[in-house]
Every structure is written in structure tokens, then in C-alpha cells.
Amino acid sequence: MWLVRSSEKTDSKFGKSPNERNLEEAIRNSVIIVDKHAGPTSHQISQWAKEIFSMNKTGHTGTLDPAVTGVLPVALENSVKAMPVLSGMDKEYIGVMHLHKDVNEKILRETISKFIGKIKQTPPKKSAVARKEREREIYFFDVLEIDGRDVLFKTGVQAGTYIRKLVHDLGQALSSGAHMSELRRIRVGTFTEEQAHSLLEIKDAYDLAKEGNEEQLKKTLIPVEYAIVGTKNIFVKDSAVNTVAHGSPVFVGGITRIQEGIEAGETIAVYTQKDELVCIGIAKMSSEEMFKRKKGIAVRTDRVFIPIDVYPSKDR
To answer: Has 302 been annotated as catalytic?
Structure first.
């Protein structure tokens, strides 16, 4: 639901819809979903994407171990600024847990059920984060098939959950020991493996685009605006865009529409009326306050996406 502060219309002379960007603009402001193969690190995948598109920078979200395959979102150039939002998305996996001893199926399922919900987990030694116990949520852990000591499972987890550690802790709880022998990530946020492409497919699509056939690459590129769908939004007037592009905060007087449910302190996205991402920022007011107040700062600008002077300054 939306709260409408202003019915002011946008001017077609300024800015453009994400779907109207030319190829170079589209690439610089997009996320690609790579179907990572076993072997390379996630960083290597990101670097190869950087080389394919001749970008200055790329970034991946949700690191996968070298042996793990599946969905790896990679942000290109300007979209790298959205990494703080992209990195907080939930994940789904399919994997194989190998038990070190025979375990009764009933006991196995009962033990797994105790790991559904909020759990305590300490990151493994090889992780890139501090090894401090932290709380994570396991949304589901389904046993799909049992073949001797091999258990095929599917699980949905909160961002930052280590599946290898989860399997290890399950093995400890079973008093049998267990390790993860195979793992594939099938979803990150709203991104699924149906949207994922191998690096070879991405390179082929880019080569075709350079020859004039952009259709396949346009299907591969996801505009950053459509990649951060889990973030609440506000929309601003044309006259407010350029001041924000210069780093100014968003004032309530420049807002046209507000998504309900925004709380002060929450990270939100700010859009033009043509659906271009202006910035990501921190809400300084709730939705209701943004709607009712006549003055004040609504959003503290954090990361700006839109270039300066795409929209006119107020005095033009």
C-alpha cells in the first residue's frame, strides 16, 4: 500500500526507465545471476565477470565455497553500491549430508526438527568473519531421500548461515558425526537457478550484443532497481532528484509516494517517478511521519546511484 503526498507528474525530457537504457548503461546498472561451477572461488567468478564486461568493478553477494555450485549474484559497476542490501537476502540449498555411522530414520528426523527455527552458530575457522557465536534462523530443513548414510536434503536459511557447519552440528547432535559431501544453492532472495547462467553463456551473450544482437544479454541483465525488491521504497519529484544526486538528504517536500510500513532507522530505496534508483539511504522518519509532516529530513542519503545533472536543478 502507498501513501501519496503529491500528484506531480514527471517530465519526459529528463531521465529514463531502467528498461530504456542503452546497452552500456544497462550493463553498468545491472546484476547478473551466475550459475557458479565447482572449482573457482566466488571472488574468481566476480573477477571473470569483470573481465568479460571490461568493468572497473564487480562484486558478489553470498560467498560460495569453491566446491559448491549454484546461484551467485554478481553486481556490475554502479550496482556494486547495492551490495549492503543484496547481501542480506535469505538462501535456499539442496545438498547431501553423509553420516559417519548408521542412524535410525526416526531419530534423524527428530534431531533435524530441533534445528528448525532460531539456532546458535559459530562460523567455521576458514570463514572471513569473526568466530563469535551468533543467532541465525533455519526456515526449513526437509529430508528428500535417504540412501544408506547419505541424506539428500533441502533447506532455507537466513543470510549468514553456514550450511557446512549446520551439517556438522547435526552430526554432533546425532552422536554419529556428519559432513556435507555436496551442496548447490538454488535461491538467493528472489533470484532462482532458473535465472542463473554460466559464465560461458554470459560471455556468448555479450559477444552477440557487441555484434548488434542484444536480446539474449538483455534477458541476462537484471536492472539494479529490480534486484533489490525486498527493500521498502519512496518516490521523489523530478525537482528533488539532482539535489540528492549531489549527496543531499531527501526532504519530505520532495516526496510523491511512500510505501507503508517504513520505520525510522530502516534502510530504504529512493526512486524517480520513472523507476530509476536515485539512492539507498536510512529513513529518519516512519512512513506516516513522511506523509504528515510538512518539513524535515525523511531519508539520510547513503549511496547515490543516479548521475549528477540527469535531472534539472530547482533553479533551472
So the answer is: no
2 beta partners = 259
In this prediction, residue 128 has a pLDDT band, given cuts at 50, 70 and 90, of low
For the stretch 96-106, pLDDT in tens is: 999 999 999 99
pTM, two decimals, is 0.92
Phi/psi region, residue 160 (left: phi>0; alpha: psi -120 to 50; beta: rest), is: left
Among the options 65, 169, 275, 302, which is catalytic? Answer: 65
**pLDDT score of 116:** 97
CA atoms within 13 A on the CB side of 190: 9
Backbone angles phi, psi at 239, to 5 degrees: -70, -15
Distances (CA, A) of 47 to 22, 58, 64, 155: 24, 7, 14, 29
> Cβ–Cβ contacts within 10 Å for residue 175, how many?
11
Strand-strand pairing, 69-76 and 178-188: parallel
Which one has a higher pLDDT value, 151 or 126? 151
Three-class DSSP category at 273? coil
Q: Do residues 303 and 79 lie in contact, with contact meaning Cβ atoms separated by under 8 Å? A: no
- For residues 228-255, give the mean pLDDT: 95
**Is the pLDDT reported for residue 250 higher than 50?**
yes
Q: Which residues neighbour 15 within 8 Å (Cβ) at sequence distance 6 or greater?
A: 238, 241, 272, 274, 276, 306, 310, 311
d(CA 1, CA 151): 43
**Matching CATH number, 91-188, of 3.60.21.10, 3.30.830.10, 3.30.70.3190, 3.40.50.1010:** 3.30.70.3190
Domain boundaries, the chain: 2-16+227-304, 91-188
The pLDDT value recorded for residue 88 is 85
**Phi/psi of residue 101, nearest 5 degrees:** -140, 165
Q: 2-16+227-304 adopts what CATH topology? A: 2.30.130
